Amino acid sequence: MKKFVWFSGVSVFFVLAFASVVFAAEGAASPEAIQYFSWVAVATGIGMAIAAFGTGIGQGNGVRGACDGIARNPDASGKILTALILGLAMIESLAIYALVIELILLYANPFTKFMGLS
Hints:
The protein is an all-alpha fold. The chain has helices spanning about 1-15, 20, 30-70, 75-110, 110-115.
């Protein structure tokens, strides 16, 4: 309980300390910037959908293969389970990489300086 109270207090402190930074007013965005970020949002949504589709297919095939292997040889279930979990982690990492790239495009704005939007 003491840890929870300490963590809650520190969390409240940081929220209050950085509230002024979060709510700082900015100037109005140009129409070009709004259009750029709208297209980035659409593209990242499509990219994440493709990544989720691909990883879902890959995970489904991996689980199917593991179930087939365990059904054929139940004694090898421990080794199959270990390989399955490692394989699923590697497959899921591809979706996480796609998510990281999309978050960079949305929040780090790497192309705005080339378009004159910064």
